Structures are given as structure tokens and as C-alpha cells.
Amino acid sequence: MSDTDKQQTSDLENAEQHKPVAYAAELVQARKQKDLTVTDIAKELNITENIVEMLEASATEGLPPATFVQGYLRAYARLVDVSVDRVLEDFSRAVPHKMESDLDVRERLPKQATRHTPVIKSMTGILILLGIVVLGYGFYSYYSERVDQLATTEDRPASSIALAPSQGQQTSTIEQDARLDEEGELVRTDNNEMLDFLATESNDKVKQDIEAVVAAPAALPEPDTITLYADRDSWIEITDGAGKSLFYNMLREGTEKTLEGFAPFQVFIGNAPVITMQINSVDIDMARFIRSNNVAKFRLTFKDDKPVLGNR
Questions:
Q1: Which of 59, 72, 157, 288 could disulfide-link 18, Cβ–Cβ 3.0 to 4.6 Å?
Q2: pLDDT at residue 298 above 80?
């Protein structure tokens, strides 16, 4: 019997001696009510039957860290229509845990600055603000100039347009500072009244245009979350779709690391077989990308609640 088989046998024996807590018993009961077997659950969740049996026995020995177990339980609960929040709450009480890492992401060098760095963000905000100010000033200058042009005509005598009379009609004279009312009659318009109307309308329009630009919300997408766990030391490099280096360092044995960024991700793992990886709490199967030297290189994204892997 191999060491792996012995370990699995030992884990199962420990699971049998362990009395399931509330969340595990609830999952077993829901599975049986749906007439599903352990094999069915393992196939749907893409995990081994051994892991399913240990989850149902609430035995944590031999399972990955609590973060990964939470992902298994969340998927299991959804599959059998059990409250995810209740299962995770019971698990947290039964197995107290926290997520932390002793490693920090390497600081980006100045020459690697992107649009996500604080300096670039600040400059972008300043440029947008200047653009809004220039736009508002342009509107204000345009309408102010129109009002000034109308003001210069205030002291000018009203000129007239003579209409050539037809046979049997007298010549008519229409003053330029007149308008037609709703019934089609000519009405003389006072220049001061017209200037006040245009000035008020112009200022209100400029104010509305500026407020509309400032109030426009900037929609930001939610980042994806990548979780890594190393059974042994492994060198890992991960860059997100914006070119930001999320991790460029050695992940030490027994260490867990959580990263956030925007897909697609470019992934390089130096000792891939010893790494357990998730994206948005869903396990990643990278077996087909692991080369003979145990190095894995692939492009990772998340679509329709499933991880999608491709060649870099």
C-alpha cells in the first residue's frame, strides 16, 4: 500500500470516529433526500469522494486549509439546496480560523507604474476636473458673448423692412424688434426684457451642463479573487489584465495567499503539482498545463461562474 493510500485510509478512519456537527449532518440529509450518492457529489463538485466523505463527517484532518473547505461547503450547499450562510456559520463555529499570510506582494518599481498607481490616478482626476472647468467656461463665454451682442443693439433705432405691395394694397412696414404672438399678431418686444430672458436661460443651461458632467457616476467592475496554497515551496508569478503584478515571489510550504485583480490573468507556477489554486472560491484544474519539468504556464479568466484556462 502506498503512502497516499495509507494517508487516505487514516483520514477516513478519523472521519468515521468523528461525530458530524450540524452543517455536515444537514448536508448528508439533503443529499439523501435528493437521492444523490457521494460519487454524484464528487463528480458535480470536481473533487474526490474521499473529500466528500470527510466533509460529511465534519473531519478537517487531511483537508486543505479552511479557506478551501469553505469553497467546498459553499458549492455542496448550493448543489443540494441548503442555506449557504447557515452551513458556513456552523463551520466557522466548529472550526475557528482566519486568513493571513506572512508574505507580502513585491512592491512595484517606479518604471512599472500603470494607470492603477496612486500618482496616475491623481493626475487622471486632475485632468478630468480641468476638462469640466474648461467646458463650463466655454459655455459661459459663448452665452455671455451672445448677450453682449444683443446689448449693443439696445440703443440702435429700430430699422424697418418694407414689403412690396401687391395691386390694390398699401405698403406695410415691420419693425425688426417685433415678434408674432400665438394668434399671429405682430407684437413689439422690449430689448431689455429679451436680454434678461436670454441671460437667465443661458446661466441655467451652463449650470445644468456642468452638474450633469460632475454627477456622472464612474462604474467600476468588481475584482476577481485568486487563492493559493502551497504544500511545498513554489515560485509563483501572476499578472492581471491591466498589467499589474499581483505576486512575484516564493510561496513557502504551508502558506496561503489571497490576491485580487482583473481578468485575464497570466500565471506562471514553478512547482505546480504542490499548489492548490482557486478563483472566486472555485477550484482550478491546471493538470493539462503542467509540463514535464513541473512548470505550469497558462492564461486564466472567470466566465459564467467557471474558471477558463488557455495557453499564454
A1: 59
A2: yes
Confidence of residue 145 (pLDDT cuts 50, 70, 90): confident
pLDDT band for position 108 (cuts 50, 70, 90): very low
Using DSSP's 3-state secondary structure scheme, residue 31 falls into helix
The 10s digit of each residue's pLDDT in 45-68 is: 999 999 999 888 887 777 788 888
Distance CA 265, CA 204 (A): 48
CA angle 253, 6, 13 (to 5 degrees): 100
Residues 264 and 213 sit within 8 Å (Cβ to Cβ): no
CA distances to 164, 165, 202 from 170, in Å? 9, 6, 41
Pure H helices in the chain: 3-17, 22-33, 38-45, 49-56, 66-79, 84-94, 118-152, 191-215
C-alpha to C-alpha distance for 278 and 155, rounded to whole angstroms: 79
What is the model's pLDDT at position 100?
Answer: 37
In CATH terms, 220-310 corresponds, of 1.10.150, 3.40.50, 3.30.420, 2.60.40, to 2.60.40
Degrees (nearest 5) of the Cα angle 239, 241, 246? 30
Alpha-carbon distance of 127 to 121, in angstroms, equals 10
Q: How far apart are CA 262 and CA 220, in angstroms?
A: 11
What are the φ and ψ backbone dihedral angles of 136, each rounded to 5 degrees?
Answer: -65, -40
Q: Per CATH, the architecture of 8-94 is what?
A: Orthogonal Bundle (1.10)
Q: CA triplet 72, 74, 75: central angle to 5 degrees?
A: 65
DSSP state of 274: G
Contacts of residue 222, defined as CB under 8 A and 6 or more positions apart, other chains included, come to: none
Report how far residue 296's alpha carbon sits from residue 279's, in angstroms, rounded to the nearest whole number.
Answer: 16
| Residue 236 pLDDT exceeds 50 | yes
Residue spans per domain, the chain: 8-94, 118-161+191-215, 220-310
Report d(CA 152, CA 218) in Å as an integer: 44
